[in-house]
Specification:
single chain, mainly alpha
């Protein structure tokens, strides 16, 4: 068991080092040597877990794609907001998430399959919007499939803008502004007035999502 735990710790250390290097240098410029130096492990230990730089990048993408779920809400439009704001907060605070998003949007990483996070996020939001539609929260003209894709694409663009201009410092405010523009076009006014949406909302949801539920 101790040997297995050590192997898991080594794998995580390599992934975390790779995340930092990929974010700082981009996929093409990053080297295995850079990652080894950052991780403080041997080449053999790295290659035991990852066969190549491409496999490392796919590992980072997979880690980023492990969504931290927002709490379940009765109002599914609120859950959509919570999910998006939580991801914005994680981009500000978690290097692994930032690196995964950077790789997803890295146009030079042509040998990587970067579709996974886009497809996963679209699936998650589509599921919530379908539930919202069934509950009568959406306006009659709204297509959940199209709306999910618009939200994912808009988030990708806004986060890229925030990364370039302010290193994500103002991302929560930008996401709040984005949703304030989109929500009136997809949901009823009676639902709109019940929603919670502020720049601080992502931090609040993160606390809720990561706080253990007390055991009876």
């Amino acid at each position: 068991m101790a040997k297995q735990d050590r192997a898991l710790r080594t794998r995580q250390a390599v992934l975390e080092a790779a995340a930092v290097v990929f974010e700082e240098r981009g996929y093409q410029a990053a080297t295995i040597t850079d990652i080894l130096q950052k991780a403080g492990v041997t080449k053999g230990a790295l290659y035991f877990h990852f066969k190549s730089k491409e496999h490392l990048a796919q590992g980072v993408l997979a880690e980023q794609d492990q969504l931290l779920a927002a709490p379940t809400r009765t109002c599914k439009i609120q859950q959509v907001i919570d999910t998006i704001c939580l991801q914005a907060y994680r981009l500000q605070t978690e290097p692994m998430v930032r690196a995964g998003v950077s790789l997803t949007l890295d146009q030079k990483a042509t040998e990587l399959d970067r579709s996974g996070p886009f497809l996963r996020w679209t699936q998650v939001l589509h599921h919530l919007l379908e539930q919202s539609h069934q509950r009568g929260e959406l306006l009659p003209h709204v297509n959940p499939t199209e709306t999910a894709e618009v939200l994912v694409g808009a988030f990708a663009g806004i986060q890229a803008m925030a990364q370039t201009l302010t290193r994500y410092h103002d991302l929560p405010q930008r996401i709040t502004t984005l949703l304030h523009h989109i929500l009136p076009t997809i949901t009823h006014p009676s639902t709109l007035i019940t929603l919670t949406l502020t720049p601080e909302h992502g931090a609040t949801i993160h606390t809720q999502a990561t706080t253990p539920t007390p055991q009876p």
